[in-house]
């Protein structure tokens, strides 16, 4: 790479580099990196998913499609997949409501320094280790944890509010981790809405809910959709939060796939499950992308 | 991964060639003779610096280490790096696989003076032998059984895991082989080869109303136990010692009437070792009671396969109290599992876990 980059930096009096070469030189590092770091491992995993057993040692390599029959052979996986989708929908939904409200407040009610500070506060969770965040929640929401201690300060005989090892605990941990995506995407979308539009609506007698649902939400829809995609995809594959916060109920596609890699040493099945989930996610997006484009057009 | 290994092998081959050609001129051959490479988990006894210093001072043999993070990785390293390793730690459930691939050297226990103290059941264990030949020196062992909170009745059987008095008070170990083993015990089957997996599933699924938590690390277990989240759990014997000793947790370790699920780690010499005599000396030192007592009391160790070493521990040593010699006879060792059975175990445990979650 260095020779081309050096040539591009030379003064214009020298022979000029053709524009396509400059483009290629600028694109090549990142695309080469993506090929190396994303495409190759993914391709390897895709190939693995057609094997009978993990290709290590001197076992003969046997090609098969049996891994993709997993949902048929082990029907409980359908239930697990449904749990994952439900957790994904809940998390995305809660993030959308909370994140949109927070972004709206940031855009409409704050300015300057205050806004910057509040934005940084939103980003704070990103700067802490995910595992630490999740473990700290276990201390808060377990029976007799900080939450109970706090409530019993005011009401000593309060029943325990601890809900560690339940699905809501998993959703709580995931919302905490992924909320900043939604706040940021909605913030950017809301920022681009012209104040005049809202003033016009209000002057014509629109109440706040009309403004919200007829103007703000539709105009900020691209932000909501981007945030939802950014959250939904990693959440249905999440395994750390379900494992730590879910206890017994924390069995999701993410933990099943992780088990195949770390415990069962069945990489082919793990990859097949992962690619099946990827196919489902892509199918969902393909179905909804038409709807979204239409709603954005109107 | 393949690429890395190949590159690495090439580098090693290149290095080997350089040493070969250079040895005549520059490097004295004696230097290679008093240096051995040990392949083990990191921080698992063989790499204690005080021990290596004592061993080197005693024998003049220098010890270097390489580590693995999974048993599969250990086997891959043995296969792809011939001539590099002189001592390797192998779980007894994997010994036959390694010996079957001609990766190990046959051993003669008369070359290991300290082997006379080894418990016969471990020393002559069938899993360490292939076609009647011994390929591993039994080193340390441990058990998976039950742990219960102090002050509660000791459970007599694993059936307590499903008993109504422990509603929502049980933690299970998130490990297919262990849990299938317990299900097999409860349905009266061979832990290593249960013929009727449906009965195993039935036993495990009956625990659902009791199961509060599936734990996968000691740290997670300690936190949840000290927070009072469960009273009865499937637990490791070695971890039970650490939880009591380091964290003063109020528990004791119980081996129910069905017996414990045992494991045994052995030390072997790879077939391609360049220095088997030095390797023998090192293994002999590893089963020396002197080394073990210091390791167990200062650092913390699993139970030694050497009965003499266990007897030299202080009488009130937790490790000694928990790992009673009679358990060596009553525990069932984890056997080498054929791939299809391992897959069946994993799939069944995954199904049971999904049942718990539903």
From TrEMBL, chain A:
Q: RNA-binding among the record's keywords?
A: no
Report how it sits in the membrane.
Multi-pass membrane protein
Ranges of residues in domain ABC transmembrane type-1: 81-288
Q: Where mainly found?
A: membrane
Gene3D superfamilies from the entry? MetI-like
Biological process, per Gene Ontology: transmembrane transport
Q: Does the keyword Metal-binding apply?
A: no
Q: Which UniProt keywords apply?
A: Cell membrane, Membrane, Transmembrane, Transmembrane helix, Transport
Where are the bilayer-spanning segments? 20-51, 81-106, 118-141, 161-190, 211-240, 272-292
Question: Might you report a single GO cellular component term?
Answer: plasma membrane
Which Pfam family name is an example for this entry?
A: BPD_transp_1
Spell out the InterPro entries in the cross-references. MetI-like, MetI-like_sf
Q: Where in the cell is it found?
A: Cell membrane
What superkingdom heads the lineage? Bacteria
Q: Please give the family membership noted in the entry.
A: Belongs to the binding-protein-dependent transport system permease family. CysTW subfamily.
Q: State what protein this is by name.
A: ABC transporter permease
From TrEMBL, chain B:
Q: Which domain of life is it from?
A: Bacteria
- Entry keyword GTP-binding: no
Q: Where is the signal peptide?
A: none
Its GO CC terms are: periplasmic space
The record's listing under InterPro entries reads:
SBP, Sperm_putr-bd, TAT_signal
Q: Which Pfam families match?
A: SBP_bac_8 (PF13416)
Where is the protein found, in the record's own terms? Periplasm
Q: Which GO terms describe its biological process?
A: polyamine transport
PANTHER family from the xrefs? SPERMIDINE/PUTRESCINE-BINDING PERIPLASMIC PROTEIN (PTHR30222), SPERMIDINE_PUTRESCINE-BINDING PERIPLASMIC PROTEIN (PTHR30222:SF17)
The name under which this protein is listed is Extracellular solute-binding protein
The organism named in the record is Jiella avicenniae
